[in-house]
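Q: Here's a chain of 672 amino acids. Please give me its 3D structure as tokens.
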Amino acid sequence: MISKRPLNIPQEFIMTILNEQTGYFHQVEGWTLNCATIGAVLADLSLKGRIDTDEESLFLLDSTATGEPVLDLCLTEIASDPDPKAPRYWIERLTVHAEYIIDATLKHLVELEILTRHEGEFYTANHCPWHADMQQYPKGDTVGKYIRSRIEEVIFTDVIPNPRDSLLIGLLNACDIVRFMFDLEEEEEKRVELVCKMELINRVISAAVKEVSVAPTLQRSPTTKPIPKIPLKSLLANRHLWDRNMPAFFGNLAEQYGPVFQIGLPYQKPRTFLAGPSINHWVRRNSREFLTSGNFFREMEMVCGANNLLPSLDGADHFRMRKLMGKVYSKARFHERRDEIIRLSRQFMIDQKWQAGSELNVQQDSRLMTSFQMFQILVSTDAQDLFEDLVRWNERAIICYVADFLPKFLVHTPAMKRRFRAYPELMRRIEQNHLPNQRTGVVQELADELIALHGNDPQFIPEQNLLFMLAVTPVFQSIYLGDMLGFVLFEMARQPQLTARIREEANAMFDDGDPGNDKFSPENYDVTRRFLMECLRLYPIISTHLRNVANSCVVENYSLPLRERLYIVQTATHYMSDCFPDPYKFDIDRYLSPRNEHKGPGYAPYGLDTHTCAGQAWVHLQLAVTMLMIAYYFEFAPLPSDYNLKIDPFPALSVTKKLKLRIANQLHELPT
């Protein structure tokens, strides 16, 4: 139920600067945003009669709590030092709380159902008549648009503004974004300046925000440190390198050398790596301002005749595509397809003749199982006979074009050219299975959504991109989902006591037939869920993200120049004891209260920034269903019983082809 309590000024300020086209704030430099946020808090405390100002000082009137945590946090600090101080003093002092205030404000707006949060720290505004007087404004179908309509009325007419609107305009003007939010002529610009001077409190706070925002000594450290270069002998002495456990390797390096370091291999330019909890926090908050994901897939796209696909997009187009993917991979869509996933999983086990005594090649069988699911779920097409060629070409292209670890000519060998021909064949099959008369009355899948979007906006998704997306997307997802399943199967075989608890959940779920929504709820597969989370911590498939520096920046007192390529190892924290005590121990209780170790900056198996995996909720659900079904029907044992796990680290983490499991026992008959 949405509260009818008026929003405070920090909340209205955040709603005003939210760009509903891109899902994030209008670009305001981080320090300026922090200063303006504190200015909004001080403005609201003034309206509530807790503080007042004259031209030079801010002084306390009443220390009584307001009942609003973000306001009371600052009010308490002001009350602890009640002698009058300059407003600039308090803005500078209180900016240490700005990030908390922004996060808490966004969280509260989500709780009020005013905003919806999406993976990757995107936000969309919900359509709801939150304010009783929103109906006055025809554009006010969201709270943000309602507030902007009030501001437009003040700027573009001669209406006398109330103090709240005057303060909001003053804060926006102090951030220098009014001119980007509204199409202003010279007359309107003068009107903005006039409004900003109408109230004493507005003049004082706006001036203080502007003064502090331009103070360069407070924005960045005046000196930067040289980035440490790790000697080759130190790399070779690291046991995790030989275990090929890249997250543990980089976590160990970050603990030794700090969050920013360089590795130089013979005959190669040194590569810059970022790792650690402070890096994860910085990337989450600042990637939009300083980093870009473009260029990495450009050459791979060009080989396939495509351009500007999701991995290469930033900004509004990326957000638009993510919204589509969010619809395709939503929890609601998963539950519409759950019965089909269960059916496909059983069918695969039957087709592959899984039974007591069977031996599985874990890497191959896990990928084949997920590809059997994903190609049917995403594009209604069988591609099992093409899958090996698709995988081999895909992996070679990523290593050569994206990671840049091998020469590019290796993508163009005769063998690779032959494998690449599987893509046109796959596309031909997808097109045959998506004639309009075949899609009537069926649940919409990825292919349907993309084809519809291409028809409605052929410039946004041109035909050349459509072909690539339809063919490549299920390949990527089958590989990554299959490799996650491979590690899960290994741990299920190695952790018989925990697997027995998963089996108890499976029995409760499947003994009376396939589960409906009432049975398939998180509390009914809690052990399965936490087991999966721990597998993703220990074996994060995508352990590193590549970014280019789009705007030069300073991170942890290290200068990162324009166009520098960064290797952001967001999963190094999975093996750092500050984030996960005893990090090498398989412990599913990490995710129970009060430990909740996954809620800090350290847990990042799906990425960090705007390119966080859009389908992570679906991935968890699909893997959970698959785990439960496998546990229901079979018991596994490793071959040999003392097998020591080997990891294949490139292009993403997976078990090696040498890992085999034996089906020790079949617990239930598979239906014919």
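Q: Can you summarize the key feature?
A: Residues 463-494 form the longest helix (32 residues).
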